[in-house]
Amino acid sequence: MNLMSSSLAHHRLASAANKLASRHHRDTHLQSLCADVSRTLSETGALLVKDPRCTVEDNDHFIDMMEKYFSSPHEFKIRQERPHLHYQVGVTPEKVEVPRCLVDEEMQKKVKEMPREHQPHTPVGADLKWRYFWRIGPRPSLTRFQELNAEPVIPKGFPEWKEAMDSSQVALVALLLRSEGFEHYRCDRNLSMGMNLNNMAKMLKCAGNDDIITIKADDGSDTVTFMFESPTQDKIYDFEMNLLGFSFSSPYEFLTIPLILCLHPFVKNLFF
């Protein structure tokens, strides 16, 4: 009886040890993959992901449908054009979009400062290609940006359009990068906040490539704090930004939505 108990205990310990070793190996592998993803995005700005959920058949069906559509007569394709929505849905014909490098003087200056062998090719006119803008997922019922959340445009004669468009791209929306793969990352808790992305972008441009970024906010607060700390801790930038408040008209008299007016987008403090 004692021998059987000892053997069973040994088996359980061995099984537990194997599970821990397997989990450690898996976590180490995932951390390595996340580190590779982070490095690739930092060095090249692009990442190619092969998702097994995107089958070859779905991709072929999507390509065949696109070839059929863009080989259609010009008079047919132009019916899916929505210029009054700034081409945020539907088709965009050729010679409509102008490359940014043709109008951005700062970008042109940077290109000229590069060695000739590293200078990118600069277009000389409007874009000659057509494109089709298709948004994935349901649109919000309340939005300030109607043109960004307009109903999708489906060409007549393509009953499979929506299914083909969604099935070929939906896997990209589900991409998840685990926090364990990134250095100095910590999230104490999840918190939903309304932020002005333009103001936030201005602040993030002030951070160095190696700075540690800390975001702080309290429940019920109308501000959020961004702190940028240099690796040597000789400089600390402290930004305080007002959160957004929205007001929508409602058909129900008993429904009250508060409105917060932000006079100053953010305040900056610099500590040495």
UniProtKB/TrEMBL annotation:
The keyword Protein transport does not apply. GO terms for cellular component: PCNA complex. Keywords: DNA-binding. Coiled coil: none annotated. Residues 163-244 form the Proliferating cell nuclear antigen PCNA N-terminal domain. Gene3D superfamilies: DNA Polymerase III, subunit A, domain 2 (3.10.150.10). It comes from Vicia faba (Broad bean). This is Proliferating cell nuclear antigen PCNA N-terminal domain-containing protein. One of its GO terms (molecular function) is DNA binding. GO terms for biological process: leading strand elongation; mismatch repair; regulation of DNA replication; translesion synthesis. PROSITE patterns: PCNA_2. It holds the Pfam family PCNA_N. InterPro entries: DNA_clamp_sf, Pr_cel_nuc_antig, Pr_cel_nuc_antig_CS, Pr_cel_nuc_antig_N.
